[in-house]
Every structure is written in structure tokens, then in C-alpha cells.
Records
---
Amino acid sequence: MYQPFREYLEQELFRRFDLQSQPIPPGLERQVSDRGKHQATIQSWCYQCPEFRKIRYTYIDGGEASQVFNSVIYPSPCYDLPLLGIDLLSFGKKKILVVLDFQPLFRDEAYQKKYIEPMRELHDNYPDLAQGLEMKFYDANQYFSKYLIFAKTDAETVENRLFPAFRDYLNLYWGLLDRAEPLTDPEEIRRIVKAQKDYDQYSADRDPASGLFSSYFGHEWAEKFLYEFLFADASPLAVSQSKR
Ligand SMILES: C=CC1=C(C)/C(=C/c2[nH]c(/C=C3N=C(/C=C4\NC(=O)C(C)=C4C=C)C(C)=C\3CCC(=O)O)c(CCC(=O)O)c2C)NC1=O
């Protein structure tokens, strides 16, 4: 269902950037689950280039039971650009949740003006995809912008509305990168390294997918996938481990 989104992202990346494949820890790149009623395959890709220190995306194909396309693009720490975050989910055809955002590293006004305000026009063009839903797992004020795409929707809207929105948001993101001036002050660069690391820790601790991974591929695999691939700069919390 979301394969055209993955293909489009991939084409854009290869066309615009000089990508280098990055290794994915053994066993995490591809996995097949027979645990559920339906077989599910999870596959991931990882690259880097001078502009982006980590580009990762994952596709879960569980037939009609589950289709997921998830991606995070981390700019090189000499750019204070937001992360590009994509989470497109479909469970059993009826439950379709789509999220797409430029995930801000900082919340000051200058940052908002520079990176978030430019999203406003797109956001306003897609009111059906920007439903202002409440978040249960995450804090909407942390690492999310006010102009994100966040909708509970249907397959037709995914095809006819989300796909053009996806192209528009991606184009805007590449444009922001084009206009961004690389930082040279080591202090400023360190601040970005830290902010991206904090994002990983926050996201790993709250990721609503960990139960899904565990149910398909087992707890051990799920922990490894979360802390060694998806959010590799996060460390497992003692508390959250004992909770699980
Ligand atoms: C392969 C990894 C991966 C998967 C499969 C995944 C799935 C995933 N994301 C979810 C919600 C969500 N996901 C996001 C957003 C994001 N999530 C992101 O990983 C990114 C990059 C964004 C940013 C666009 C939001 C905002 C929600 C709703 C959570 C809430 O209500 O708090 C949910 C809960 C759906 C529900 O029952 O309501 C799942 C299972 N998350 C993952 O990280």
C-alpha cells in the first residue's frame, strides 16, 4: 500500500544525493515472521551522504493485516535542519494512520520561523490530512511541528491526497536543505549532535511500535532493532527493560 511512497523517496534520494550504503546489524536488515495469522516481512535500508548522516527507512509487509512505511532522515550535524520523519501505517485496512513531519530539534522562535513556517502553506493545502489529532504516546510539543500531517484516513485518500502531499513536503524539505548554511562553530555543531541524540533517546523510549515488533519477531529482536538500528544513539533504559 505504501510501496509507491518508499519508491518515490528512494528515487529522490538517489537522484539528488551521493548515497553510500550503511551497514545494518546482522539479522536486522530483513526478517520474516510466521507468528501471526499472516506472514509478515520487515525490511530496512540505510544510507549516508555529505548532507545526511543517517537515512533509514523500513517497510513492513504483512499483507492486508499490516502495511507500514517508516523513515527518519538525520541531517549532518553541521545543519540544524529538522529531521524528516515519516510513519505511514495501515492495520487490517480499516485502521490507517499517517504521519509526516519536519521534526524540529529546537523550539525557539527563530527556528520556527526558519524551518516550520515554510510548511504552513502546504499544511493549509491539505486540511484533510492535518487533522490535529491528539497524541497518546508522544508529546506533540516535543519533536513535532505544528504543521505536521497527522490523519486517520482511508486508502483512497492515501492514494489521491497523501501522495501529492508527500511529494510537496519532500520538495520543501530538499529546498530548506539547499538554502541551509552549514555551521562551522564546533560548539554549535555539538549542540546539534546532542539534540539528535536526545531525539533518539526520546523516540526509542516511547516508540509505540515496540509491542508490534515483539509480537511479530520476539522481544529480543525488537529490542535490538530499536536500540541498534532505528534509534542507535539511544541506550536502553533500565526501567523500561524491567517493565517489559
Ligand atoms: C519501523 C519503526 C516504527 C513503526 C513500525 C512504528 C509504528 C507506529 N507508530 C505509531 C504512532 C505514531 N507515530 C507517530 C509519528 C512518528 N513515528 C515515527 O517513527 C516517526 C519518524 C514519526 C514522525 C513522523 C505519531 C505522531 C504517532 C501517534 C502516536 C500518539 O498518538 O502519540 C503507532 C501506534 C498506532 C496506534 O495504535 O495508534 C505504531 C504501531 N513506529 C516506528 O518507529
---
Amino acid sequence: MTIFHISAECYPIAKVGGLGDVVGALPKYQNKLGETSSVIMPFYDNKFTNTHDFEKVFSGRFNLGRPFAFDILTLVDNTLGYDLYLVHIPDLLYTDYVYSSNDTERFLGFQIATLDWLVQLDQQPDLVHCHDHHAGLIPFMMAQSYAYHKLRRTPTVVTIHNGQYQGWFGHNKIHLIPPFDFSKAGLLDWKHLINPLASAIKCAWKVTTVSPNYMEELKYAANGLEDLLRYESGKCVGILNGIDDKVWDPSTDTDLIKNYSLKTVASGKKANKEWLCKEFNLNPKLPLFAFIGRLVDEKGADLLPEIFNNSLYHKNISIMMLGSGDTGVEQQLDDLKQQHAGFYNTYIGYNERLAHILYAAADFLLMPSRVEPCGLNQMYALRYGTVPIVNKVGGLKDTVADIDNNGFGALHDGATVQEGSFAIYRAINFYNDSDRFKKNRNLIMKIDHSWDASAQAYVNLYNSLIL
Ligand SMILES: Nc1ncnc2c1ncn2[C@@H]1O[C@H](COP(=O)(O)OP(=O)(O)O[C@H]2O[C@H](CO)[C@@H](O)[C@H](O)[C@H]2O)[C@@H](O)[C@H]1O
């Protein structure tokens, strides 16, 4: 089966968060199952594109208020485990960032160029898999735009990685979408705006979320799309994300200070912790708590300053925070450094290598998320022998069980300062019960969250549409 994944992000080409991780791994595991799975994404001017060779496979022009020329480039070496196609629109997408505050034309152009290329291929795809709202208009255009008539019977799947962002724009831009039967314009609309995510939910053959629990939650909290998701629930299913167990393997991870396996976990984690604590002026003898992520409300980032301040009161733990986002929260987190020097530090920014070291160095990983469609960080933490402390939402509920309930992590019931602070207090007691803590560390490293099972679940879903 020939499958094209269409996405704004894909690791290692361009990653802002978990979407990049998923699209960078899922096709690889689908190819392992014998499918032919590739990725189509925008060409950005970044380190990856500047240091790799590409070959042009197609050139075209489309109209988006004015004409735009584009090329489809493919990566020459095949080290990724899947074919990669980059949509290069120099006048629209040639940037060193993935997202900006004005992306309507950028991602519309990306989707149109993608379909202009796909529609003229000798061998049509068996299935098109769209990720998030940046590819959300593709199911509509494939089904309704005259120019893509040849693709109208090709099944489409859309995966919602994050239902908060929907890509809305005004009806004054409807003419930018390649001509279609105007009586079908309602398929683009939600609450008087053109809403790419809503349109994808209406038009795709199947809709998936990245965990089963998130699918249920969206029916009651989906940033305005609740009714639509309830109405379309017959074609919706939650499939839990996996992790790329080649990229995220403490025994081979080239970013780590010292590699380790189940047998050497104690000395391996110690070496990474010592390096990190030296680098960031923390005490390696204390339990180390980490946060890694985007500093936005969904992740509960606004709660962190107070949770940290409460938890550092007794000076019996170390905390390391890696993240960026809301500038007010960044400032508050940085300000705390003076008060808790030697016990707390931050790295404001994005740093892939430091993230890997931190998963390895930390004893606990904090995720007080308000919304967490799946969450990958808790799964990376488990693989690196780090205990996740998470709010009981979305995929976190599907993947973490509590230590007081025969589980292996700490769950709290609500994204609040009180719940987050109390979970840390419980975790310190757990850490001090060192035999139990060590046994638990061995147990969590053995939990298998690799993509194998989930990649198969997607393939089964595709087959149900094709056969
Ligand atoms: N400052 C920083 N430096 C280095 N690395 C950083 C970083 N900030 C974040 N990361 C990395 O980005 C990724 C974050 O992934 P998540 O799945 O937790 O969240 P995200 O909200 O981006 O993804 C959305 O999509 C994914 C994929 O479906 C869902 O799991 C998730 O719930 C949903 O919100 C991890 O690989 C993490 O290590």
C-alpha cells in the first residue's frame, strides 16, 4: 500500500514538538510492516536542508491571489527509513521557522502544491494521511476541487495531534481554495469561519486522535468542535502514539554523557546527572526533577513557578527546567533562580541534546498538563528510567499508573498548584524508599511503547478503507 503522510513537521528535518516526533517515526515503522509510506512536508531554510542534497522530481505553479512557482524535492540519501518529499515554494515557505502568526497562505500553498503534484503521478497513492490543521483542507480539496477529481476516491485519514489549534481564517479568503462546487462550501465552515481542522473532521474518511482517552475528552472540550466530534464519532478512533525506540534508546543515544542499559542504569543515570548538575550548579545528591516542554497553558506551564517555589522550600530536591514559550512565564521561571540558587536552574530555549541528557539525568519528569493529547515525554522518561509525575488527562491517563495503585508513576487529579506540589511531595517519599525506587526504575525501563503495535493499528485502519 502506498501512503503519503502530509505534515508541517517531521523529525529530524524540522521539529517544534511532538508532531515532528510522530511523523518522523510512524512511516519508518509502517515500512517495516511492508507498506510504502512517505512524508510530504514544506521545505524550510534550516540546518537539515542546508546540509543535505535534494533532487527535483516535479515543478509547477499555482495561483494564490497571484502565481507562485514551486518544486517538489526529494532527499537523495535514504537514511530516514522512508522517502521524504519537500514542497519548496521559495516565495511562501522559504523560512527558518515552521510557524508564524500569519500562516494561512503558507500552509494553503503547501497543500495546493502537494495535491498538484500527487494528482499527476502515474501511480496514484492508496491513501493520504493528513496531520493536524496544516494539512486539514486536503480531504476537502481531494473530494471537491475539480482539479483533483482523479483523487476523489482516494481514502483520507486525519490525525488530530492537538485540537486546540484549528487554523481558522475568514470567508473572504475562500477564493484561494482551488475551484469547487460552491454548494459544498459548508464543508469548510465552522461557526462562520473557514476552519481547516473542522473541515478535515467532516471530510476525511477516518479521524484519529493520538490516544483513546483524548478522543473521549474532545467530545466535551475541543475548543468549539465538541458537537462536531460527537456527531462524527462513528468514524473517529484513538490510537496511542508510540516512540521511536531507535532515536530514544539510552544504550545507544549519542547525545548522552554515558550510555546505559537495564543492567547499568544506576551508574549510567548517575554519570548523566553528575554532568548536568555540574553544568547547571545543582546538587547531584538530591532527587532531580525535570520539566521539558513548551511553556504554554496547555502544558500547565503557568503553574510551574509556584509549584517549584513550594517544592524547593525544604531544599531537599533539585529542579531543572528546559523550555520556552510564554515570555511572562519564562521570566517568572528565570526570576526564581536567585532565590533557589544551587537547587534550581533553567534553560530557556529549545535544545534537543539537552533534552536527551535531561531525560537520562532526572529521577522524575513533571507534566502538569491541562490538555495532553498523548504526550511523548512521559514515554521517553520511562524508557530512560525516569519516573513520570503527570496530571490525569488525555494520553497521560492512558500511559501512567500511580505508585499507590500498583503503578509506577505519580498521577495527580487536576492541573493545580496544590495537586502538582503534593505529587512532588509523594515522589520525594517514594525516592527515599530506595529499594522500591530502584525496583520501579527497572520495571519502567522494560515497558514497551515502541511504534510496532500502533503502526500496525494504523495499517489495519487503512486496510479497512481500501479493501
Ligand atoms: N525546549 C525544548 N527543548 C528540546 N526539546 C523539547 C523542548 N520542548 C519540547 N521538546 C520536545 O518536544 C516533544 C514534545 O512532545 P509532546 O508530545 O510532549 O508535546 P507537543 O505538545 O509538542 O505535541 C502534540 O502532539 C504530540 C504528538 O502526537 C502529542 O503527544 C502531544 O500530546 C500533543 O500536545 C518531545 O520530544 C520533547 O522532548
